[in-house]
Structures are given as structure tokens and as C-alpha cells.
Amino acid sequence: MNGETLHSIGDLARRTGLTVKAIRFYADTGIVPPTARTPAGYRQYGADSLARLELVRTLRELGVDLAAIRRVLDREVSLTDVAATHAEALDVQIRVLRQRRAVLTAVARRGSTPQEMDLMHRLARLSEDERQRLIDDFLGAVFAGLHENPAFAAVIRSLTPELPDDPEPEQIEAWVQLAELLHDHDFRATLHGMAQGLAVDRAAEDATGLPRILAEAVRARVTPAIEAGVEPDSPAAEPIVTALAAHYARILGHPASHDSRTLYPVLAARLEQMNDPRRDRYLSLLAVVNGWPAPESLAPALTWLATALRTRMPQR
Predict the structure, then answer these.
(1) Angle, vertex CA 64, rays to CA 60 and CA 65, nearest 5
(2) Contact, 44 vs 27, CB < 8 A?
(3) Is 166 exposed, middle or buried (0-12, 13-18, 19+ CB in 10 A)?
(4) What is the pTM of this model?
(5) What's the rounded Cα separation, in Å, for the pair 193 and 189?
(6) Around Cβ 169, how many Cβ atoms within 10 Å?
(7) Does residue 149 come out as left (phi exceeding 0), alpha (psi in the -120 to 50 range) or beta?
(8) Segment 294-307, tens digit of pLDDT
(9) pLDDT tens column, 201-226
């Protein structure tokens, strides 16, 4: 035809890597019809057919369905639009596969029961709206009665998990574990108690140079002592215990003349409440989900000070 080189179906199969059967199928369905036929009825294909077959093979390898391929070849829709649509579909599939991988990885690491695996799978599959409702419900319970305090807006933001649109596998796994904590009503109650204590801390005035918030004050005084090897029951710990107990007395609004040693049991109990291991786990998982640096645990400082207080309490 006008000097165009025509290829037999066998030649076309060798050039494209497709089977003769596949090429016949594409011809019979009208996706890549033959350019001509020999007098004996054998199909022949020109350069345009070769190009169409190459495109069909590529799109099929990428997972594009035949209906979409036909629309591209018939110029009913552009290749760009089909590629964009298919890329979006692949994104969804990739997210689903990552979720499944995260669940299976967590199950393998933890030796989960079938019931736990089912829960993790359902948590991983939550939609963005469902995740947000779970988060809002959790933080609403933790900060009940405190939302009107403007100082807590930043605190709430700092405790809000935000799973990215295209999370890494470790972020999905962290989200699954974090979502389990969000369902823990005892943990909610514990954090609510901590939040109420934080509200009291923020209302206090202090002119000693210690941070007003108890947790920050403990970190500032106790962490250097731990690094220096000071034991909680040693004489070297005495001025630290005294300063922090007096600081706590001011937080509670006691006068300067108040004997802060009477608060040792109350302060020790407060520190032990703050030292819930689920708190550290929540903050660690939150950092992974949000892509933040790993937080420094306050647990060693809280344990040290609680021990130092209890060794100085009068024996009953």
C-alpha cells in the first residue's frame, strides 16, 4: 500500500514480544485491526499497527483496562488523561497495600490474636473523616472542660496525629498502634487528669527561675542530676527535692511559709500518674505518624524524683 512495508502477524509478534494469539485478539476486538490482507486472507500490519500494538502492550503492562485503551486509540480521550486517572487509581492501590503490609508486620512482631489482627486491619482502613472523628473524640475527652482556655490550643495541636496523604509503612503501623491507644478509655481518663494538672501549673506564678509547668521544672532540675550520677536517696539530691517541692507548693497556691515537705506524698503520686508508660508510647508513636523527631522521654526524671520523695517521707 503506497510502498508501505507490511508485516505478517508472526513478524509483528517477534517485533512486539506479544503472542500471535494476543495480536489476533486485539485485531478481532478492533483495538488493532490489520492494515490489509493477502489474497489468501492472511492479515498484514503496517507501521501504524506496530505503533498501536506497542502502546497497547505498554498500557496493559501498566494495568490499564482494554476499554480505556480503546478510548485512547479512538481519540475519545487523551493519553494524558488516562495516565493521570490510572496513576490516581494506583495511588489508592499502593495505600491499601501499604496498610496491609503494616498490619501484617505488626501482627508478625506482636504475635497478635485473630481478633487483634481484625481490629488492626479495621483501624488501618479508616477513612480520613473516620480518623478525624476518632481523634476529635479522644482529644475532646482528654481536654473536657479545658477547651476554652486559650493556652491549651497549642497543647491540643501538639497532641494531634496527622497521617500524611502518602504515608510511609512505618507511619501506617504507628497510626494503627496509636489508634488502639485512642480507644483506651482508661488512658483517656489518665491523660484528662494530666491535662487538669497542667491547667493548674499554667495558672501558677513562680519567680525562682524554674519553669512554671511541673513537667518542665522536673526535666530542668532532675535530668542534669541523673546525667551527673546523683542518686535519688543521696544527700546531693536534697536541694533538688526541696526546690521542686517548694515549686509544687507555689503551683498549689500555698504561702511561702508552708512546709512543702507535707506535700511529698501528693507530689509523688502526681509524678507517678504522669509517669504512665502509655504517655511515652503515645508521644513516640505520634512523632512517627507526624514525621517529627523522636521525643525525649520524661520517665527517668519522673521516676528519679518520685523515688527521692518517697525515701524522704516519714515512715508509718
Answers:
(1) 95
(2) no
(3) exposed
(4) 0.62
(5) 6
(6) 13
(7) beta
(8) 999 999 999 999 99
(9) 766 555 555 777 889 999 999 999 99
